[in-house]
Fold this protein.
Amino acid sequence: MPGDVKVLRRPEEKGSYVRAALKGMSVTFRHMVNPRKVTQQYPDEKWELAPRMRGTHRMATHEDGRAKCVACGLCPTVCPVNCIKLIPAEDENGERYAAVYEIDEFRCIFCGFCQEVCPVEAIHLGVHYENAEYSRERWVYDLERLCDQDQPFTALWDPADPASE
Amino acid sequence: METLTGAHFVWMTIFKVVLFFTLLMLMVGGVVMFERKVAGFIQDRSGPNRVGPWGLLQTMADGIKFLLKEETYPDAAQAVFYLLAPVMAMVPATILFAVIPFASPLPTGWGLVHMIVADVPVGFLYVLAIGSFGVYGVVMAGWSSGSKYAFLGGMRGSAQMISYEVGLALTLVPIVLLGGGVRIPDLISLQQGFTGQGPATLGMWLFLPLGVSFLLFFITGLAETKRIPFDLPEAEAELIAGYHTEYSAMKFGMFFLGEYAHMLTTAALITVFFLGGWDIPFWHGDNIRVLADGTVIGDPTWWKTVLTFLSFTIKTSLLVTVFVWIRWTLPRFRYDQLMELGWKFVIVAATAYVFVVAGSVLVLDRLGVHFGLPYAAILTGVNVVLLGLLLFVVDRGRLARGAAYTVTRGLGRASRRSGTGPAAAGRS
């Protein structure tokens, strides 16, 4: 509809190219000589990450190094993108453990549902994002690798404001 | 001191070719680095700073990458022209440097060495002739790639460069009117101011007595280098990379080198024509000239060669800085604006200006004004008035008007008058 097109009623006689160009040049010149730069020298200096930042997963372990996971199956159920593969097993005491526990970090959307749903606080998201790999297979983290992660656990709530007020 | 002759001349020329080509390529590398740094600064970034100290080796890394990347050959390409195009893009830009004097003549044991590869009598006619060759690289690349985008880029490139070629040549005519010749060392002498020896000279850099020419030459020179705001042949947003879309690795690298070499050449030409070449301002010790018949006037020494070379380099670098600064400030012209600026402004103004300068020269000669500083001062006055008028004409929306205004007005009117179009049809 023609009425919806925004028509700029600017008379041509009042437009200017030379003055506008010079004005632009002065703006860029001011920025050129301004020593304050916004670039962050990434590998040398990094962002300070928020405690609730959701990144690469980390599996919590007992003191003896066993994963805390009890293979209840809640996290693969709740996962919206099906990136968790869990095959449960029972040991001689009748306790369930995860025989296979894999998370495809490539597929994961880092929603954090698995951490929220976990009844034993085993699987966590971590405050960590530098997980580049040379192949897609390497993005599938198995249980051992999840236990070996050492980044801090993602906080589910702000300790200063637990009720989110 | 006599100028070089015979075998000495041949060997020295070969040495100068190698030296100046190496120098040019090094300077191109420097300019690429410089441009990226300045681009960063203008955008509040710090620019490349990872390779080498302060990022200075970034260009080397780029060069190595150009050499190691895969060479691709499109199926639809016309092999001969496809391979020839990068050469045609780079060669004219580099051989233009042959006629540019870098410094005052250098006295050596064998004779006086000109700091210019080829002191050709046709002078800047050579510049115009070789400069026109630049368009072949663009057209051949665009046409032979067998790609629609490259073809469009080539078309635009040829139209743009041929249009501005005319203006470029016309802006140089007033220099001939004042200098009475086309030999480039003579043009530098013209701006230096000699008294009593050889033909009379003005003694003032030509950007003052020929201010309008300077402005127009700057604009057309910028258009010839195909840089923003005249980079329609490339136009990343519309044409991917324009005429060199289908080129990879070192073949693209040659276009790249050619573009920057062309920028340096244009800056050097502006320096020579309008900023006194290697002349050091306010100092008469560097007034050295070698006439076309070999007569040497002045007192050449090696340290004067060094100083004048520095002077030339500083002037050229300042112009390159302005080019880079413009590139990272101004938006690209629309195609119609480009053509309007070229045909309706530059060519018209340059033609009219030739007549104005010719008239002024005639009047000043009749009045018997001394050909020297007074002559130049009067011409400067005339040019200041003309520049004011010219800028007034360009400004105020008479040329290069705002895009938003015209486009939306046209759209609104057309659909209102006819009452058709997709929106109107949907309503009924």
Observations:
- Residues 6-42 of chain B form the longest helix (37 residues).
